[in-house]
Design a protein that fits this description.
The structure is a homodimer.
Chain A lengths: L12 E5 L10 H6 L3 E5 L10 E3 L6 H11 L3 E4 L14 H18 L4 E7 L24 H16 L4 E7 L1 E3 L8 H10 L12 E2 L1 E3 H13 L4 E5 L5 E2 H11 L17 E2 L4 H6 L8 H15 L1
Parallel strand pairs in A: 1-2, 1-4, 2-3, 4-5, 5-6, 6-10, 7-9
Antiparallel strand pairs in A: 8-11
Helix pairs in contact in A: 2-3, 3-4, 5-7
């Protein structure tokens, strides 16, 4: 593997929206450590000291214009969005936040900001193949929810409105944290295990990338300070199954008796190859889809029988 | 993504062992198309014309020496191994085939061969993490079966014995084909569905890379003709679950009523990010393991309650 390049880090005055939220509050300490003067837009008191707290209503474009005129940030990290657990997927508020994101990007560009980090989602991608490959930032965008569609639109529209400045679109995958809503996976499994119940899982075999929200906060701060532009997946790079997460939690809490059974012992849940050498160095082309190849195999078997 | 380099292709006189086997017979036509003069070691009549068929006992090192002296191959593609379904994992014969592979590599080098392609397995890798990342060729080797251990030993020993020649070690992942043993996954699901039975699956959620054996044959032929050296994963690059394979087969055979239920509708079985940009371009470090992070989250939740 190539070793990671040391990125150019440029701190300045950063406006952080959603700064009191699940993710936002984890960006404040890393941003401060990176040398930023942090202006936090939030109605909650941050747990770490920041330069100034603003309680601006971000859906009010006049107020946003006034805020940006006053702060004159060099950087914007925009996390605010409608995020009510379970409701945000199809909420009409998603459209309001596309508009608010555009207004913020335009105001920031007009008042001298040179770098804008917006937050997108894995739900922007086309998953109709069932997720058979790791998602690259350049892959097809085909969101099926209002939330995913709104984020994809915000990426394009706000990116255009930010003009010649550096625009970054951080696509978050699955996050967890100790203060997540009780209905979310990790919180609900911890609650079940602490109560002595077998965790109730809807799709134990589903394969996901779960990142600790603290790591997402650090990554977003680094993206704000860095020089990369365009879409960037923000995820751990570690694949796991929902069932394996529940088992790890049960083990961590000393209740292995409440760990879900994970198939055959000794049989790894996931066995996948990195095929970069085969494709790029040996230039062996990708085969047809598995679906097409299985159909041919079924046909051949029928003919032979 | 970088576009695939066009590799230098060099055909010559190739000795193919295991040429009548499940994989080997699929290498003969591609090798011929690439311009090779094919000497096939097999006791079965190949389905495609080859230059010469040899019925040499490869466990007899004297016979192997005589064969190589006679044929004087420029290339060797060595597929022969003990492969009895279900038995090969722990069979004592694995040790015999390490020895045979070494004898063949030494004889080939002594008689002018310049390129040797041996066949390894995904079972050489350390899977104790449950497979949470795509396996790179440079990843830890820690086989837990006699078969995996023997293949890993053959790689090292035969590679050393082949000396200064080009030595390639093709690590195959999961393969399927219409003539595979009835007990293997695809054949058994096809048989179940054709008989009108629900497929019996042991680990429906297990995530695997299944490659059509015909594609493996083409890939091995290209590796023989190419210039890449060292270990190379040979796999499709497409992730799937055992349950999804059964569902695709049932659909392909027009029996959607026999397709296993795959969790929530609309919920992709796999959602994973390529994090190359984040790691290499944005230089954001990899987080701790999910296990450690979940343990911390459990601790934080307990403290908060």
């Amino acid at each position: 593997m190539a070793s990671a390049a040391v990125p150019e880090v440029t701190a300045g005055r950063i406006l952080v929206t959603g700064a009191g939220g699940f993710i936002g509050r984890r960006t404040l300490a890393p941003l401060t450590r990176l040398g930023f003067e942090v202006h936090a837009v939030t109605r909650r008191s941050p747990e770490v000291p920041v330069t100034e707290i603003h309680t601006t209503d971000l859906l009010d474009t006049t107020a946003v214009e006034a805020l940006v005129t006053k702060v004159r940030p060099s950087h914007v990290l925009h996390l605010a969005w409608y995020a009510e657990h379970g409701l945000f997927w199809e909420a009409p508020q998603n459209a309001d936040w596309v508009h608010a994101t555009c207004a913020l990007a335009r105001a920031a560009a007009n008042h001298g900001a040179t770098r804008f980090v917006g937050v997108g989602t894995c739900a922007e991608y086309d998953w109709s193949d069932g997720g058979s490959k790791l998602r690259l930032e350049s892959d097809n965008i085909a969101p099926t929810t209002r939330y995913g569609q709104a984020k994809a639109r915000a990426h394009k529209l706000a990116g255009d409105l930010f003009g010649s400045g550096d625009f970054v679109w951080a696509r978050l995958f699955h996050l967890f944290g100790s203060d997540e809503p009780q209905a979310k996976l990790v919180a609900s499994v911890i609650a079940d295990v602490l109560a002595g119940r077998m965790p109730g899982l809807k799709a134990a075999g589903a394969v996901r990338d779960y990142m600790a929200v603290e790591d997402a906060g650090v990554a977003l701060a680094q993206l704000a300070a860095g020089s990369i532009t365009g879409a960037v997946n923000v995820a751990s790079g570690e694949a796991t199954t929902i069932g394996a997460i529940a088992a790890m939690i049960a083990q961590s809490l000393g209740r292995t008796d409440l760990a879900p059974q994970l198939g055959e012992p000794g049989d790894p849940p996931i066995m996948l190859a990195d095929v970069s050498r085969l494709r790029l160095e040996a230039a062996v082309a990708a085969p047809s889809t598995l679906r097409a190849l299985l159909a041919r195999c079924c046909q051949d078997t029928r003919v032979a029988n």
